Structure formats: C-alpha cells, structure tokens
C-alpha cells in the first residue's frame, strides 16, 4: 500500500534533528488525517518531508488545503525549505486556522526562528496578527518562554504596546517568571531607537514604562 513507501521515504529524508522536532511538536498534529483527500500534504509538511510535499502538489492537492481544524500545510511545517516551496506554489502566508492562528503564531509558539525569519523577512507575513483571544505571535512567544523569539520579533517591529487576553508582552513575561526578558524589553524601549519605538514614541513609552518598572520592582523584592 501507499503507507509503507511513504513512511520509508519520510525516514530516508528525515535527519535525527528533524525527527526530534517532529516528536516535540506532535501535539500540534494530532488532528492530521491521511484518510481524507489532501491529508497527506499536511502530514508530509508536518514530518519535514519535502519530497512528499512536492509529490502531493504535483498530484494536484491544493496548496492551501485545510484540515479538520482549518490548518494548512503552512501551519503544520517547521521546515523552512518546505515553507518556501509552499509559498512558491501560492500558499497564503497569513492563513488562519479555526482559532485564527497564522503560521507565524505557530512559529512563535515553537520558538522556530528559521521559519519566523522567513515569514517576516521574505514572505512579508503580518507581524502582529491576532488570534481568537487577541494574542499576537509575540505574546505567544513570551507565554511559552521563547526568549530568543521574543527578542527577534521585538527587533523586527512587533507591537510591544499591543494588548491581548494576557495583557502586553511585558505583562506576559512578568507573569511567566521571566525577569531577564522584562529587563531586556525595558532596555529596548528606553535605550534603543528601533522601528517600533520610532513609529509611536510618545504613545508607546509612557504606556509601557510604568508596566515595566512595576514588573521589575516586583521581581526585585
């Protein structure tokens, strides 16, 4: 049957590091079904199987095929090469799943800097999309304690003054017990002249500094 060759091909083209990534993020893919038309594309994308993805696209599977949770291959993959192939084939970089998560939300949650950089720099994905709870990728990165991702997104222009279900990114970092990240954001706001601050200096700094100082004071007790 087809399942045997597919598994053999995936194993042949998946490095130990990629296999570890697949295992780490398996919870994101519990909804995958290969018994429905198009499901194989999602599974190949999730497994990091570029050859399988290319085969499914050649077979006519729509590049934005949606699974049961309205997720596309762009949501499933943690592989930059696969993401590039999907975008080249016309995939929507800001596609939304049932919870209104975009591919950048998933990259932020996973702490996958490779796909995040590709989405923001090359694919020109929206950097501040809000999900059903009004949370942005930046807020998710802080919630899941992905410090490097928070720093990248802030430096790339993510909205540090935006509020979601958990408050601003400063609120999230403080609540998740990340005093060093709160300090880093404080330094960025006060001392850097990044794009986020330059665009709305008068509005952002007065709003964020009290929050930051309150969070820092709380950690110093």
Could you list some keywords that capture this structure?
Ankyrin_rpt-contain_sf; repeat; ANK repeat; elongated; 221 residues; 2 domains; Serine Threonine Protein Phosphatase 5, Tetratricopeptide repeat; 58% helix; mainly alpha; Ankyrin_rpt
Note down, in words, how this protein is organized.
The protein is an all-alpha fold. It has two domains: about 1-90, Serine Threonine Protein Phosphatase 5, Tetratricopeptide repeat, CATH 1.25.40; about 100-220, Serine Threonine Protein Phosphatase 5, Tetratricopeptide repeat (Alpha Horseshoe), CATH 1.25.40.20. Helix content is about 60%, strand content about 0%. It is built from 14 helices and no strands. Helix 9 packs antiparallel against helix 10 (about 145-155), helix 9 (about 135-145) runs parallel beside helix 11 (about 170-175) and helix 12 packs antiparallel against helix 14. About 40% of the residues are buried. It holds the Pfam family Ank_2. Keywords: ANK repeat, Repeat. InterPro entries: Ank_Repeat/CDKN_Inhibitor (IPR050776), Ankyrin_rpt (IPR002110), Ankyrin_rpt-contain_sf (IPR036770).
Number of strands: 0
**What share of residues are in beta strands?**
under 5%
Q: Would you identify the CATH architecture of the largest domain? A: Alpha Horseshoe
Supply the number of structural domains.
2
What global shape is seen? Answer: elongated
The average pLDDT value, as a whole number, equals 81
By CATH reckoning, the class of the largest domain would read Mainly Alpha
For this entry, what is the oligomeric state of its chains? single chain
Low-confidence stretches: 1-5, 7-31, 194-199
Radius of gyration computed on alpha carbons: 19 Å
The CATH topology of the largest domain, please?
Serine Threonine Protein Phosphatase 5, Tetratricopeptide repeat
**What profile does the largest beta sheet have?**
none
Secondary-structure element series: HHHHHHHHHHHHHH
Considering the protein shown, what is the CATH homologous superfamily of the largest domain?
Answer: Ankyrin repeat-containing domain
In DSSP terms (H or I, runs of 4 or more residues), the helix count works out at: 14
N- to C-terminal separation?
A: 64 Å
As a percent range, the share of helical residues equals 55-70%
Which class best fits the helix and strand makeup?
mainly alpha
Keywords: ANK repeat, Repeat
Pfam families: Ank_2
InterPro entries: Ank_Repeat/CDKN_Inhibitor, Ankyrin_rpt, Ankyrin_rpt-contain_sf
């Amino acid at each position: 049957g087809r399942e045997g060759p597919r598994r053999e091909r995936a194993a042949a083209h998946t490095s130990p590091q990629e296999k570890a990534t697949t295992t780490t993020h398996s919870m994101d893919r519990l909804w995958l079904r290969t018994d429905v038309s198009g499901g194989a594309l999602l599974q190949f994308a999730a497994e990091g199987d570029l050859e399988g993805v290319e085969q499914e696209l050649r077979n006519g599977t729509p590049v934005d095929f949606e699974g049961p949770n309205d997720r596309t291959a762009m949501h499933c993959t943690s592989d930059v090469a696969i993401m590039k192939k999907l975008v080249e084939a016309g995939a929507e970089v800001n596609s939304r799943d049932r919870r209104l998560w975009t591919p950048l939300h998933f990259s932020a949650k996973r702490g996958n800097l490779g796909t995040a950089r590709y989405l923001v720099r090359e694919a020109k994905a929206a950097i501040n999309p809000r999900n059903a709870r009004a949370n942005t990728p930046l807020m998710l990165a802080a919630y899941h304690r992905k410090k490097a991702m928070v720093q990248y997104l802030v430096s790339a222009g993510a909205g540090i003054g935006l509020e979601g279900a958990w408050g601003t990114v400063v609120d999230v970092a403080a609540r998740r017990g990340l005093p060093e990240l709160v300090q880093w954001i404080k330094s960025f706001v006060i001392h850097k002249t990044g794009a986020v601050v330059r665009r709305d200096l008068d509005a952002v700094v007065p709003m964020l500094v009290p929050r930051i100082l309150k969070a820092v004071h709380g950690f110093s007790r």
